[in-house]
Design goal:
Largest sheet: 8 strands, mixed
Strand content: 15-25%
Radius of gyration: 18 Å
Number of helices: 9
Shape: globular
Order of helices and strands: EHEHHHEHEEHEEEEHHEH
Distance between the termini: 34 Å
Helix content: 25-40%
């Protein structure tokens, strides 16, 4: 029996586009790869945590059942100056679906990335409660209230490490596979130049450009063997009601990336170009 090729999997942030990680993981496993460890930022931490804990199937079903009304029902608005959304309601819904677990006890090694507003430093969660790690990592500034813990004020890890290539536990021989769902814009620049702007679009687009630049620099320092990219303008970051469609987009993107990898391997090339 042929031994499966092991991969260390890195999942980037990107709001609802992060649901594409589900399809990417399913395609990776369908083609005979074994995930040895996972590291994620923001939605990458959420999907990666569900996978590493062994609950990706129920999570996928729950996400794909969401419509606009259900998504809105998960939003608990607050008058707090720290953010528009508390985030408690969605975390309770998640814990009803998948019970909390300690990261060090999960079947697949896992790490989630957040940023500390006090020091500006990256904070990596590879121990402790899974939902504590996820809640900190998904705290999009000005949207979700930050997490106050141990003198830190934790926000979305995309501020410091949007695609955490360097935070996944990698053993000798493991391929490094990364899924970046906030990749450079794929749409027509002329169309983007004509789009109407508001406070939300300026904030989101500025954040996306920043994360693209950070991810590009990180990729040069730690080049992946397989890189899966989804442009930041492919789906809106809050279109969770399109989860089924986004899952399939992730599956297609992984299939294409694995095809390119197979072609390079047949030509004797080992790494993807950074």
């Amino acid at each position: 029996m042929e031994q499966k090729r092991r991969v260390a999997l890195v999942l980037g942030g990107g709001g609802a586009r992060g649901i594409a990680h589900i399809g990417a993981i399913e395609e990776l496993e369908r083609q005979g790869f074994e995930v040895s460890a996972v590291a994620g930022t923001s939605m990458g931490a959420l999907v990666g945590g569900m996978y590493a804990s062994g609950h990706l199937g129920p999570f996928k079903e729950w996400m794909c059942a969401l419509d606009r009304y259900k998504v809105f029902g998960l939003v608990d608005f607050t008058l707090s100056s720290e953010g528009l959304v508390k985030g408690d309601r969605v975390m309770r819904a998640m814990q009803e679906l998948v019970p909390d677990v300690r990261i060090e006890q999960m079947p697949v090694p896992f790490a989630a990335v957040a940023a500390d507003l006090v020091t500006g430093r990256e904070v990596v969660f590879d121990r402790g409660g899974l939902y504590d790690a996820i809640r900190a990592s998904i705290s999009i500034p000005s949207v979700f209230r930050p997490v106050h813990r141990d003198g830190m004020v934790l926000v979305d890890g995309g501020m410091v490490n949007p695609v955490p290539y360097d935070r996944v536990r990698r053993s000798e021989g493991d391929l490094l596979v990364a899924v970046d769902v906030c990749a450079p814009f794929g749409g027509d620049p002329a169309f983007r130049a004509r789009m109407s702007l508001n406070h939300y679009k300026v904030l989101v687009t500025s954040s996306q450009i920043m994360q693209q630049r950070i991810a590009s620099l990180q990729r040069r320092l730690c080049p992946p063997d397989i890189l899966v990219e989804m442009p930041a303008d492919r789906f809106s970051m809050f279109e969770f009601y399109r989860s089924a469609e986004i899952v399939e987009a992730g599956r297609e993107a992984m299939r294409a990336a694995l095809g390119r990898f197979a072609e390079r391997a047949s030509d004797g090339m080992e790494f993807v170009e950074a």
